[in-house]
Specification:
With 114 residues, the protein is of the alpha+beta class. It is built from five helices and four strands, in the order αβααββαβα. The protein has a single domain, classed as Winged helix-like DNA-binding domain superfamily/Winged helix DNA-binding domain (Arc Repressor Mutant, subunit A, Orthogonal Bundle). Helix 2 packs across helix 3.
Amino acid sequence: MAQGDSNAQRYSAIYAVIRAIPRGKVMTYGQVAELASIPRGHRMVATALRNSDPTMKLPWQRVVAKRDRLRARIAIVDDRGAMRQRRLLQKEGVRFERDGSIRLHLFAWIPPDA
């Protein structure tokens, strides 16, 4: 299997996981990678999102960075993208702490068969 084919299959698996995240829930890059059967693939998840076509209409805002064991954060570097992600998540009911973190025990999505 060629490298491009392998990445295309991995991207497809990543996109399928992201599409399954329900409104009002989030997953970390690492959790998406694990569910897509790409252990330690959090960077590949970020690359897949960067390379995604907007017409795919992925709920990209639901993928966040792990801050620590209990909290997540928005990983987008530019302010406009981070504010947009925060607004989209707030519209879905995700609440942010004063420090900008998201409590995973309240908003992380864990699939029923995981």
